[in-house]
Amino acid sequence: MTTDTALTAEQILIAAEEVLRRFGPAKATVVDVARELGVSHSSVYRHFPSKAALREAVTQRWLDQAHFELKAISEDSGTASERLQHWLSTLFAAKRKKALDDPELFATYLVLAEENSAVVDAHIETLVKQLAEIFQDGVERKEFKPAHILSTARAVFDATAPFHDPVFAATWSEPTADERFKAVWKLVLGGLKAK
Amino acid sequence: MTTDTALTAEQILIAAEEVLRRFGPAKATVVDVARELGVSHSSVYRHFPSKAALREAVTQRWLDQAHFELKAISEDSGTASERLQHWLSTLFAAKRKKALDDPELFATYLVLAEENSAVVDAHIETLVKQLAEIFQDGVERKEFKPAHILSTARAVFDATAPFHDPVFAATWSEPTADERFKAVWKLVLGGLKAK
């Protein structure tokens, strides 16, 4: 039971995730979220003006969780190649863990992502910018060949799509997945270094 | 009206595609296909023992259409880099054309592909083998750096997935699609040539 006045947006988002997990994206309502928290639905609406706004914020929070760890890696010490490999393999590992550990919640988030494509686009833009920072640093250190920063960063993101785009989640448990990731990584790294 | 004795498997497959287009994959039946041809359903069953077998053959035919043109490109004259670029851009163009020219039929084939994943796996294997032949030739001509042939070919296929995997069809009409394809191609080519 949460007292009405102390209720935070974060508490609502955690409860909303739990409700979505339990009832699925088609059935979950704001009233369910309020009941989960032991508050009135108007208390929830004070933070999120509509069911759509709440679902958007839940999607945002889910996607943001990936950013912090990756941001730290992109600003790490070490060569740009090392950071890039670490960044891409961490992204793959995080997505794979989410998909395999809790497939139902993952499927729920796919529905939410479909509904909130602008949030997903902003998420991808944030990730591509992190890649761009690593790439730019690699060019400055003469590890990588100079090229258009943002379009090269996007190309790295696109070329590794089979290892982070949720549409490929079903392939992530295949025994060859890691080997295939390594082969693409080798190709990408060679492409960035190529004179 | 087709006389029963002259009925070929190819005629049935063409009629089945037309019926699938008209009724959708959920409703189309073997009786509809027989009616379309003006034959009895037993005439259809003589060629395809079940509805599932017919749908599998329709899927196979749809996927095979891509192979012939690509096979010819893989065996073309010209450098391996030229052939590889031609092969990848032809695959992208063909998939994009199918997806954009007739979105309903494309959606129908996505359902059929989902049902017949073994056929799809064999299709991908055929394509990766064509890529492997171009890559091997490039290594022999010293255009490309020696590397494991099949896993490198698979890496090229995986890295270009955003430009041939049907799950990305919605992005193929975006104005940046060609630019993004070129950036990935540049990265891949650099990776294959990298010393």
UniProtKB/TrEMBL annotation, chains A, B:
Keywords: DNA-binding, Transcription, Transcription regulation. Gene3D superfamilies: Tetracycline Repressor, domain 2. Residues 6-66 form the HTH tetR-type domain. Signal peptide: none annotated. Residues 29-48 bind DNA. PANTHER family: HTH-TYPE TRANSCRIPTIONAL REGULATOR RUTR, TRANSCRIPTIONAL REGULATORY PROTEIN. This is TetR family transcriptional regulator. It comes from Kitasatospora cathayae.
